């Protein structure tokens, strides 16, 4: 049943919008209405931005990061520390770490984690290219930045095995209490890890 | 501060997405990521649909409804009852009533309500064109479908005054308990109106 009376184009737009994360048919209808009211300020610029990004942003052939240039801005930044590669699951992890200015080295994006239940094995991830990069003479340390989930840690172990015996320092991000977080809402695993890794105050 | 490392185009897209209702910077970033993963299924079709709707959908010169054709599909539908016009605030009200198949007559969209606080007076609404339409020989009844808010009811009174003395039947939608609604969450005004307008069972 159509959501509007304005014809198939608008209903098609609403059905596309309702596939966006956080949107359903009602909120997509509201968003379409909002955009129709602000055609020049929102709707047309959004259409242009979507086309432009769809055409220009692609995966970096070195690290797998998404960028309009290849190699990406991070891989081609001469000021970054080329001896440290932080391995993450996804592009959004790179964005988060960069917003935090937490890492001054390079990245390697796996594109997911090993997940037998979802049919994702090591060959579906960018592990071969990580192995190649890790053999480069300048690389000294690999930081494992996968999620602290079962699949994330399985992947971290697999990657570690693949990189062993090359004299690389392999580290992982610390587990602990999130900064600004309250103890009573944290799970037992995090609390145990945070206590075990306690440090002098 | 940029949300991503993928260059200004993607950050511009995210800033546009974050202006949509229900979206902020974080959810807009997630939406952009989702679309980048589904370029052919979501991103490009969405860009095309937005451009197409922005170009084709416009206000009906008769009733103010949005449609790709002018007069709109409803105004040009010969099967509809031309003697009854339902006056609503907004296009989304037409869509809601049409989804409910609640009204088989025509509509008139005011484009808002009189709201002195927001600087919206009668001249900012499509009241003159309603007055003209109401003078047509075939029009017998005007249904006031404004919101049951102070501004909505002020507007309803103003419209009624403008249309008085022409032999038109002017009605309003009934107040009462929403179908499927529970009594204990309803406000006093609705409960009082529902009791007052009670009907034989």
From TrEMBL, chains A, B:
Keywords: DNA damage, DNA recombination, DNA repair, Metal-binding, Zinc, Zinc-finger. GO terms for molecular function: DNA binding; zinc ion binding. The keyword Hydrolase does not apply. Residues 83-178 form the Toprim domain. CDD domains: TOPRIM_recR. A zinc finger (C4-type) spans 60-75. GO terms for biological process: DNA recombination; DNA repair. It comes from the Bacteria. May play a role in DNA repair. It seems to be involved in an RecBC-independent recombinational process of DNA repair. It may act with RecF and RecO. Belongs to the RecR family. NCBIfam families: recR (TIGR00615). This is Recombination protein RecR. It comes from Parvularcula mediterranea. The gene is recR.
């Amino acid at each position: 049943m159509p959501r509007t009376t304005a014809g198939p184009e608008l209903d098609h737009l609403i059905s596309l919008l309702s596939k966006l994360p956080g949107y359903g048919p009602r909120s997509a209808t509201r968003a379409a209405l909002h955009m129709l009211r602000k055609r020049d300020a929102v709707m047309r610029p959004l259409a242009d931005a979507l086309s432009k990004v769809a055409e220009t942003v692609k995966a970096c052939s070195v690290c797998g990061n998404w960028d309009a240039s290849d190699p990406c801005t991070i891989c081609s930044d001469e000021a970054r520390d080329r001896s440290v590669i932080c391995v993450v699951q996804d592009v959004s992890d790179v964005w988060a770490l960069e917003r935090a200015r937490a890492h001054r080295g390079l990245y390697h994006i796996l594109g997911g984690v090993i997940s037998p239940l979802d049919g994702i094995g090591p060959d579906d991830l960018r592990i071969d290219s990580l192995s190649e990069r890790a053999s480069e003479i300048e690389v000294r340390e690999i930081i494992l930045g996968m999620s602290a989930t079962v699949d994330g840690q399985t992947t971290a172990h697999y990657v570690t095995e693949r990189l062993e015996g090359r004299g690389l320092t392999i580290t992982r991000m610390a587990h602990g209490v999130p900064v600004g977080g309250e103890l009573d809402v944290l799970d037992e695993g995090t609390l145990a890890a945070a206590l075990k890794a306690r440090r002098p105050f």
